[in-house]
Amino acid sequence: MKHTLSILVNNHPGVMSHVSGLFTRRGYNIDSIAVGVTDNVDVSSMTIVLNGDDFIVGQVKNQLLKLPDVLRVQDMAYASSVQRELVLISFSISETNRSEALTICNGFDVKILEMTEDSLLIEFSGNSRQVSNIISVLKPFGIREISRTGQIAIAYRNQNAV
Amino acid sequence: MSSTTEAITGGRLMVELLEEAGVEIVFGYPGGAILPFYDELYHSKKIKHILVRHEQGAIHMAEGYARSTGKLGVCIATSGPGATNLITGLTDAKLDSIPILAITGQVATDAIGTDAFQEADIFGITIPITKYNALIKKADDLSRHFEEAIKIAMGGRPGPVLLDFPKDVQLEKTTVRKASALKIAPHHYERPKVKGDPQEFADALNQAKRPLLYVGGGAINSFASAEIKALAEKANAPVTTTLMGLGAFPGTHPLSVGMLGMHGTAYANKAVLECDYILNLGARFDDRVAKYQDFAPNAVRAHVDIDAAEFNKRVNVDHILHGDLKDAIREILPFVKGGDRTSWIENIQNLKKNHPLDFDNSGDSIKPQDFLQKVYAKTKGEAIVSTDVGQHQMWAAQYYLFDKPNTWLTSGGLGTMGYGLPAAIGAKFGNPDKTVICVTGDGSFQMCIQELATIAQSQLGVKILLFNNNFLGMVRQWQELFYEERFSESQWTYNPNFVKLADAYGIPAMRIEHKSEIEKGVEFFLKDNGSALIEVMIPAEEKVFPMIPAGKSQQDLIEFKDLGKLKK
């Protein structure tokens, strides 16, 4: 089962190594990791997606909390948080399928960043399922390059609303 | 932050911080990248530096010092190879929760990352094996990192910390110094408030008919011996300890059932199977003790630990108290009731009678178990004992009864061969008035044998008890029992003359081979406060029993008397 952990850490050099190293040496696999500084320059936010049962996620949380630079660990339940990922995709088009490609882009609420005679460069954000979805829809056109940010997440303030 | 009026170098500041924290002794080895610090250390009147022969010796000495005194152990190394030679000791201290501060020299900050001479990314290398580590980039940051490091090493569940100290930062001047009250005194640091319900916890114990206390190394770190004794006596509950917990409860106490686990006593392991309540006090259900989730299958399980990550890590428990062990037991005690446990205690006595520690002492050869019993008698159990790793370690754990905490120094978690000799040296520096014995084997001894020079140089009275069977004994035992006697690379076809070797270092030494020489040997070995080595030749086929084969659990315990069955 996929879990999304939101982790607040001190914004020091080496903290990322400490956190990712913990996963490596305990044999847990990271599906995606996204890091950025928060409004407080001394604090960074990491979002880590991992596959594991509740026992493994519990162990990960416990071990993370032992690191002196880890301030908070939150296990994000899908229903009570917003989860987003950004993807940039460059793919091939031709005269015959250009309009089909543009129709798809419109349908997906995609931002077109560059269009050449034979290619499109687009930006899309959504939850990981939607991102995977658009990639598979565009695959038949011929994908040239993909760059995904990895998932970020934040909990809704009002947990009762969902 | 407060500031001193006068700017001093980072190296000077490090020495002053160590002095102020109360560090009296450091173990180390100089080299290019740590020279500015050593130059400042030269002027220190408060800190004694012990020059070792290998950095691995330095950190194990720091460990032996820390374990036997409860204080912080400090070791120093230069950059690159000096620092990487500390790796084994850092890992050892991490697994056994020993408070260690390692200070390593590093190449100058402008050379970091250029593959400079004697450069290694020790910060990166030691991330998984330290509780905390830092690369000090500016002398202004030193004081902050130092305070953080000491607090983390000594606080909560103790562990090793490493400060990587570039050469230019050692020379850089600073006025920044935190006004702090850092002390390396035992039990001085953060003790998280006990979380959980002590009454509910005690109720489960009160309801138990066959309770068993299972005491680990956390009891030593928490200085909780008196509390454990009070709890055991009040509850009338037998006590078993892990290898790490030896000494936390008196081994001679009527309620003691000795050590449990792979080479624990048969009665302790059988008590685990029979108990209806097991109270884990500062142990971690290590895999040498608890193989499966069905550990203590008939028992309600309870666990007290300072490290929340240990709860339900390997074995699920029913009751949890999170906090310092000493404090936790103090909170439980008022709710504990006596209860009549006569039949359970009788049961334990019968187990002890019917399944004693046993070995065959017929014949002319010297049995290590017998020799250790004689050493125990001669020292009246008052010695500090360090060991290396292997058969001799388990025999020492079984046959030398430890009554006091901080007197048993062994590499429990990592199983580090080469640990024993330097650990004994560190312990002797910390306890000059006590008899310190290193029990070792011919394999382990040769892993840090160069530290004999450190003993000689300091005129230190360390006693070395060397069991020689010209084999890697424990490896041989496994090969004999589980690999159909294929002794692949476990025999030493060459061993040095250990007596002459000791003589070369000016250490009195003697070899004995026959049972008739035991008394003479023990007498020679322990006659005064000086150093001595006794080499005891033992049969290669002598084995450690009882034994739970690797991967098996308490049900599969093999006793000495089962040996015949096993061989068929």
Description:
The complex is a heterodimer of chains A (162) and B (568). Chain A has helices spanning 15-25, 54-66, 98-107, 128-138; strands at residues 2-10, 30-37, 43-51, 70-76, 81-92, 111-115, 119-126, 143-148, 152-155. With 162 residues, chain A is α+β, with helices and mostly antiparallel strands. In chain A, the strands form 2 sheets. In chain A, strands 5, 6, 7, 8 and 9 form a 5-stranded antiparallel sheet that branches. In chain A, strands 2-3-1-4 form a 4-stranded antiparallel sheet. The model of chain A has no long low-confidence stretch (mean pLDDT 92). Chain B has 3 domains: 8-177, Thiamin diphosphate (ThDP)-binding fold, Pyr/PP domains (Rossmann fold), CATH 3.40.50; 198-355, TPP-binding domain (Rossmann fold, 3-Layer(aba) Sandwich), CATH 3.40.50.1220; 368-544, Thiamin diphosphate (ThDP)-binding fold, Pyr/PP domains (Rossmann fold, 3-Layer(aba) Sandwich). Chain B has a 6-stranded parallel sheet, sandwiched between helices. Chain B has a 6-stranded parallel sheet with strand order 11-10-9-12-13-14, sandwiched between helices. Chain B is globular. The mean pLDDT of chain B is 95. The A-B interface holds A 13-14, 17-18, 21-22, 25, 55, 58-59, 62-63, 65-66, 68 and B 123-124, 127-128, 131-132, 134-135, 148, 152, 307-309, 311-313.
End-to-end distance of chain A: 21 Å
Shape of chain B: globular
Structural class by SSE content of chain A: alpha+beta
Would you tell me the overall average pLDDT of chain A? 92
Q: How many individual helices of chain A? A: 4
Protein name (chain A): Acetolactate synthase small subunit
Subunit structure (chain A): Dimer of large and small chains.
Enzyme class (chain A): transferase
InterPro entries (chain A): Acetalactate_synth_ssu, Acetolactate_synth/TF_NikR_C, Acetolactate_synth_ssu_C, ACT-like_dom_sf, ACT_dom, AHAS_ACT, AHAS_small-like_ACT
